[in-house]
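cron nightly-structures :: item 1 of 1
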Amino acid sequence: MGNGHGHRQHRNSANGSVPQKPSGSGYRYGPSDHVAHVPSSNQTAQSKSSTNMLSLPYGHVDCSLRALAGQAEGFGRFAVGGLHGPLYHVTTLADDGPGSLRDACRRKEPLWIVFEVSGTVPLSSYLNVSSYKTIDGRGQKIKLIGKGLRLKECEHVIICNLEFEGGRGHDVDGIQIKPNSKHIWIDRCSLRDYDDGLIDITRGSTDITISRCHFSQHDKTMLIGADPSNTGDRCMRVTIHHCFFDGTRQRHPRVRFAKVHLYNNYTRNWGIYAVCASVESQIYSQCNIYEAGQKKVAFKYLTEKATDKEEAASGIIRSEGDLFVTGTQSGLMTEDIKCNEFHPSEYYPTWTVAPPTDDLKHVLRHHTGSQRVPRPADAPVVAQ
């Protein structure tokens, strides 16, 4: 699937020197790298002739089944899913009953859930996922329709290589994360055409990473932070990287209160805006590609009043190394907001990021979402 690691850069913590990185490859962004690395015109030219060098992160996670656990970058990096539980084999596409996905997800013990069948699972109601679960669709083609997954007051959940399509009903999201859930990783999923959101993260849910996902055929794509009355959402932290927002209309994401790190995403042809910062949100947008269609402004600010404040406020967006193409206007506010902004290095030491080139755009178009990859062999867990 072309997702092996590229060359990585590590900052020398003793003297702050940065080794020369190969053009066109992914590289590590260290804790004191407070300015995004953008390729020179010469590097860009070299990059165009070296597409094969550019690759998505997590190339090693398919070497064995459980190598996925604890390997996320960003705020969700501690998610272990069902690492320490047995395999649960889904043997039926039925909505419920023995051998079903719903049966596996409701169980209280840690489980690594794999599929022995391919096809469509029709959900008649939200499928609630309990703590310490990995839902691993590698090796099969699994599509969830009708409703979606709900992660409610749970922790350590990994969702990998699934399709979500055609969710119907009031407040029906593809993946709904609320309330008070944490340590979540959503990787290599395809989501489209739900009546509400594709992924909604609200009501104190935090430490979440969304990576290598493909979003399409949708309006309100991703909401982070419920409404201005939910001041408890100030704790929320989310990383979104190497995702493809493919003609979806808005909310890539829309954020209230939370700290959000966006890097190496490709957002194109939105209908209203790409990214929206609302009440007290802090968004760090790094080396993303924003490609406008008819609507040209990428960033939007909405002013709202938190219920425990006397004055209304919008959020803040810091853009470093982003690429705005096809006449895209950033829409960034010009006020000095540095005293309020966050930097990801305050929370995690390294992450894999590449320059926003045509090579990156090509890889994100063709290698995000659910992939045809074999299910890796299981291996014993080595106690630490």
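cron nightly-structures :: done
The longest strand covers residues 155-160.
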